Amino acid sequence: MKIVMPGGTGQVGRVLERAFTAAGHDVVVLTRRPSGPGQVYWDGETPGPWTDAVDGSDVVVNLAGRSVNCRYTPANLRAMMHSRVRSTRAVGEAVAAAARPPRVWLQMSTATVYAHRFDAAHDEATGVLGGQEPGVPGYWSYSVDIGTAWERALEEAPTPRTRKVALRSAMVMSPDRGGVFDVLSRLARTGLGGPVAGGAQYVSWVHETDFVRAAGFLIDREDLSGPVNVAAPAPLPQRAFMRELRAAWGVPVGLPATRWMAEIGAFVLRSDTELLLKSRRVVPGRLLDAGFTFDRPAWPGAAADLVRRSRARARGRAA
Prior knowledge:
This protein has 319 residues and is an alpha/beta fold. It is 41% helix and 14% strand.
């Protein structure tokens, strides 16, 4: 297959590109900074010569959007919104204009569209979209607005010959440097990976192997379209999540952090506490109903595998 990946140079893009290339597929990455074979320039906003890559392709996987690993200032939130919506509209224009459009368009979305809650899990049928929760920072609702606008841009694209799937993805865990697992591991290994603000907030995650397998599953299943939660079936409270990660690294203790300590830490790391404090209890209802099985359904085994591979990569770099 020919697979085109706009915005495919980030962590998730690298995960998918490795897997698709290893499986023998022809992968084209659209990026603002092409640096090698298989990469094509695009500006993320307007049609251009890059649309030739879309025409005649089999699959488009759009991952474009400004990283959420930043301070949630008004300017950064606007940049997140604009980069996601404009790139999705540009991809939609390319697909709509193609003489031979791709048969499926997988569009990255986010599990953040769901409400901050502790009492029940969100699946696609019964999950509650966020934005109206009491007692949370007001700007959290803008993150939900970003996710819903992202999906709306996908829905509004006039692409009748192309099936469209919105990947409401949890955090994708891979041993890549700079990825979310790498950041959390550094906290755990330095003794800072304890409960944050009590640690009752749920963490939804998915192992890179299952993310890749879910993408392949959704490419093949012509009966699946619309929003699909891509998350392991066993989200767990943050305190348990970090306890299992520390255990995988062999670190017995993690210092707890209050909310104000988390604010300071996020400021130093130029990130935002929403990523630590929002309870994301998301389950993959549609995938499970369709018969998808997870290779790494539980966090202890997934964490152990990721730590083992992280150590192997570190040994390889040191050699």
